[in-house]
Amino acid sequence: MMFRIARDRRGSVLTVFAFSAMVLSVMTAIVMNQISFYWAKRKLQSSVDMAALMVMQSGDISAANAKALLISQGGSPNVEVTLVRGHYSADAGIDASKRFIANATPINALQLDAKIPADKVMFGDMLGGNLKIAATARAARHTTASVVMGSRLVRVEGGLSAALLNSTLGYNGKLTVMDYNSLASANVDAGQFLQALNIKANIKAATFDDVLNSQVTVGQIISALAATNKDGTVLAWLGKASPQSSNKVILNKILDLGSMTHLPIDSALGGGAMPISVGEILAGSVSLADGDHQVAVDLASVLGDPTIANASLDVGEKPQVLDYKGSSDKGTSLSTSQFKLNIGALGAIPATAVKVDVSLANATVTIDDINCHADGKADVTLKAVTSAASVGLKASILPKINVGLGSGESKSVKFSPDDIKAQTYKPVRSGLGLQLGGLTVAQKLLFNPVDALLEKVGLHVAEADVKVIAATCGSAGLVY
Fold this sequence. Notes:
By secondary structure, this protein is of the alpha+beta class. It has helices spanning 2-7, 12-58, 63-72, 159-169, 178-185, 190-200, 208-212, 218-228, 232-240, 278-289, 299-303, 417-421, 443-456; strands at residues 80-88, 100-102, 109-117, 132-140, 143-156, 187-189, 215-216, 249-250, 275-277, 295-298, 312-317, 323-328, 333-336, 339-346, 354-372, 378-395, 401-404, 411-415, 426-428, 435-436, 439-440, 459-473, 477-479.
């Protein structure tokens, strides 16, 4: 009887069916949940991609803005959002995973991460209670600014100095030359000017860089400026300009067009690719052409002192009128000075040989931020450090000693879209101080009160004039 019961299989079909149904249900639940997760992931990824682009384009780069955009696209109100700003490099030579660096400057990109609770359609308890669906997107935009700057050692304006000059010389306001001011306010397009100069000087250049590095005369520059400007008054003043020197000049000493430099000379650059000042180009060119750029003097023959037979005086640079930087990214710096002098080999070599370098009215300006708005316009913030003078002393057997007559403080100056449109110059200065190596000596005790007094009497020492002539906000794009 026991043998018959063991051979009886009438209930096995039900058992196999029950087991198979359970396995099939579990497999169906897995498939259905995976399909649900897949579509939720696709929907979330599309929303995150769109939100990253919109946040980058809007200028309001914040997690709150990104979350609001995700919810407005029908996303879950429980979405968790993390946004990190950073720097993206489009260099194909860099591994894709390393092209975005979080929190690195200059900031031109963002990474947006979003998570939502997973929607479990079957057997949700089997999958745990904290299952999340995540998506990541990176967006970047290429922002640039074109900046021009110049420095001065002293500016006289306002206060007691103005009152004295007004009473004695009839001075009122700024010391200016009216013709120069009018020329300085007249702009020409850099691309068209260089194309005209290429023809006037018969350079036969292939790129804009070729024109900038060619030797041309001031007369040829005037002719090219005249050919590019249609204002009758400006043409009349240019017609009266008669250069005193026939010396050749190289424009790359005063004009830097940034990314535009290597474009073909026949490129069609519409819409005012880069406005430059007629007066500034003319003044800078005349400064370069005015005599020999290098001056060397044998001090022994001048002073008649045989003990300084190895000494010489070299004037390395003429006054730098201005420095341009066109279509540049955040972090780009410009530097200029009004005078540089080098004195070498003072004394008997090697024990007492001393080299001295002196520069006056130094200024360095850096593009600190380009803040783009939703309308495509931008605010540009520059940071500047100026000093009245710096002196370096180097003995052959001793380390170099640097002394600076400036506070070393970085000052910010902001340009609104209206400032950029109006081509507004703004003065910036760090103030006086004494920098000895890396130390500030007696700055608050001595130089700050002196600096404040000079400002009150209208003597502004060691300034830089800066102007943003253009700012561009490229369209945002998704990047890896």
